[in-house]
Amino acid sequence: MRAEFGLNDLQASLFTSFVQIGFIVGALLSAVFGLADRIEPRRLISLSAFIGGCSNYGLLYVDPISEHALVLRLLTGVCMAGIYPPSMKLVAGWAQVDLGLLVGILVGGLTLGSASPHLFNAWGGVDWRLTIELSSAAALMAAFIVNFTSLGPNQAVAQKFQARDAMKAFTNRAVRLANFGYIGHMWELYAMWAWIGIFLSASFSQSMPESEADYWAKYVTFLTIGIGAVGAIGGGYLADRWGRTKLTISAMVVSGSCALIIGTLFGSSPWLVSIVCLIWGISVIADSAQFSASVAELSEKSLAGTMLTVQTCMGFLLTLLTIHLVPWLVSIFGWKYGFSILAVGPYLGCIAMLRLRQMPESRNLAGGKR
Fold first, then answer.
1. Which range marks the domain in which residue 206 is found?
2. pTM exceeding the 0.85 threshold for the entire prediction
3. What φ, ψ does residue 34 adopt, rounded to 5°?
4. Which residue among 18, 66, 77, 327 is buried most deeply as judged by most CB within 10 Å?
């Protein structure tokens, strides 16, 4: 699309940031009006996926450099807020002693979806029109398929609508600490996903021809992000057995350390850089689902959807800052220190989860396994 319509860097970046902004707007609206708890999750997911798919498909019929394209991207993001948090609530309704694993599988799917474009790009790329057609068709298919699922025994009936219920994400100390842990995780996650491919290409080019470096960087980027599906599912399995706080703290210590280390390896052996990236890719997402599982277990069941929506809203709002922070730091200090700022988030997240672990409410996590 950039090549065909001559989009500049700002116009191209707005195609992504407007989806993020739309998600935040949609999550705020959903949280304030309690939509994730007041509307049956299958119906909310189906409607959101249908409108989101149509909005995405509409890009084929508007000028990409017009405000109409940005409105469609914004609407797509709004609809995503009606899919992701309610999906977690729907999954939680079926959980017995395996909530971490079930939500981990859901996040694993998101991770593979985020990684797949890098694989297609390594294969030579896909025409942007075909990309939009297939992704829109997938959304419409999801809108149809979700209606064949059923509600689990743990689904709670929503209370009478109270706008102030959304504030319980902050007034409930246990939920607030779980949210702080999630915010620390999100400080790192999307900025790492957004820039690891550029870093790998630049690092590999120090020891091999640029064209070859770019080629292998695409594959390693796919593996770095895609292997996170293993981390998400494995993290869920272990969290249900070890405990939520123990798993999230362990994962954030590893991922934060990778954020500090990776820059010092810039230009080193591609094999060494790739190995550290794979470790980072596993650990950076291994804890993600467990923050959501924690909020679901610590919240009133009738407000779980709203609490999860508030959580994801805060996390995605933060990504708008960190995604732009990394290239700014790289322009000043180079790649050696470009990722180091990302370690701040997971290390502060560890403090939040340690404090949660000390609270009696933490016994509600993972059947008492904290």
1. 2-148+164-368
2. yes
3. 60, 35
4. 77
